Amino acid sequence: MSCFTLNTGFSPALRRPLTLRPSKYYACVNVDMRANQKPPSVHGKTSEEIIADEKKFIVGTYARAPVVLSSGKGCKLYDVEGREYLDLTSGIGVTALGHGDPDWVRAVTHHADVLTHVSNIYYSLPQVELAKRLVSVSFADRVFFCNSGTEANEAAIKFSRKFQRFSRPDDTNLPVEFIAFKNCFHGRTMGALALTSKEHYRSPFEPVMPGVTFLEYGNIQASVEMIRSGKIAAVFVEPIQGEGGVYSATKEFLQSLRTACDDAGCLLVFDEVQCGLGRTGYLWAHEAYGVFPDIMTLAKPLAGGLPIGAALVTERVAKAINPGEHGSTFAGSPFVCNAGIAVLDKISNPSFLASVSEKGQYFKQLLVEKLGGNSHVKDIRGVGLIIGIELDVSASPLVDACRKSGLLILTAGKGNVVRIVPPLIVSKQELEVAVEIMTDCLPVLDQASSK
């Protein structure tokens, strides 16, 4: 006899198919299952068959969880066998409006039928309109579009170097180096990779771009001294480190960077690829600090799941850049930018942002009440709907157990932090279900620590 996940009936509280999962609240479904037998796939192939094909045909750059997802709606995802999962990953912070948001769907289907791509040889209206909206709700004067977060950071690297050359035309010893911070993540292309602190990301591809110094996140004295050296073209910092373990900067730290950069003539770059666009309950994470950058990089949620990135810059940075000095074939297509307009219009609504803040506070309080007393839980931190749960053991057993019980969450930091970045539309009821599942799964940490 064996237990398996089964959709049966409806939960009156959630108005959704009820997914049975092994726990103290649900009895095991008494079904005779032969060894290795799985429910039939609604797509004709089982998860095992699809996973086998992936291993055969796709370059092995990912250590994937053994789930084949086929559809989604709101904060729910479904695998090819029809099992339901509560998604608190939002595609690593991408699907901020959940899956299948009707306004996003209308924007995408409309422009798929009207115009998808023309390249940046020509003008297109959605690109200009999205740029206008981004400028109107930010510190920035101009926008450069690209296709991902790492490309946005590559643009920021190039713009910073060019700014120094433009602003110091007679200087033969230009500042060309960069400061980044420990536990940071800025991307996987060669320039952004050089700004990413984890050695296991960089070491297989060295030598990477030289001239990057990694300082302790939050160390004001070391940062100011390095900026004053006269060697620094720009400082890259995440107001909230996502992959690094969900660490938030202090206002004093960011303000010290701003002041020192102004004094030295170098640029301050905020990487808000993960923490921006409503994730914290503010449209931009740095708004909570009252400190503003020269360049801000964006990506993940901006087009609701379609590939886009952006570097937002002040006019003095934009003046340094000439036609032909940077570009992209695919960036800023009318198709993707029309989706971006739908996303930005919804997320930038003050009532939407207020709801994110309220749900974030409620969620964090629930986590503290239900998980905070566990001996393996060392800290619960974050703001809005980016939350980190630091453990004294690896987070992987808890993440795996939650997945088997129908909840998708992530790891971060050194593998000992549970990272939770749900769609911003998540309901309080769904957050309660998530906390219940995590609470039920906590005993796996005792098993992991005893090994």
TrEMBL record:
Pathway: Amino-acid biosynthesis; L-arginine biosynthesis; N(2)-acetyl-L-ornithine from L-glutamate: step 4/4
GO MF assignments: identical protein binding; N2-acetyl-L-ornithine:2-oxoglutarate 5-aminotransferase activity; pyridoxal phosphate binding
Major localization class: mitochondrion
InterPro entries for this protein: AcOrn/SuccOrn_fam (IPR004636), Aminotrans_3 (IPR005814), Aminotrans_3_PPA_site (IPR049704), Class-III_PLP-dep_AT (IPR050103), PyrdxlP-dep_Trfase (IPR015424), PyrdxlP-dep_Trfase_major (IPR015421), PyrdxlP-dep_Trfase_small (IPR015422)
The reaction(s) this protein catalyses: N(2)-acetyl-L-ornithine + 2-oxoglutarate = N-acetyl-L-glutamate 5-semialdehyde + L-glutamate
Presence of the UniProt keyword Ribonucleoprotein in the record: no
GO CC terms of this entry: chloroplast stroma; mitochondrion
Cofactor(s) in the UniProt record: pyridoxal 5'-phosphate
Cellular location(s): Mitochondrion
Ligase among keywords: no
EC id: 2.6.1.11
One Pfam family this sequence matches: Aminotran_3
Class of enzymatic activity (EC top level): transferase
Family: Belongs to the class-III pyridoxal-phosphate-dependent aminotransferase family.
PANTHER family named in the record: ACETYLORNITHINE AMINOTRANSFERASE, MITOCHONDRIAL, AMINOTRANSFERASE CLASS III
Name of the protein: acetylornithine transaminase
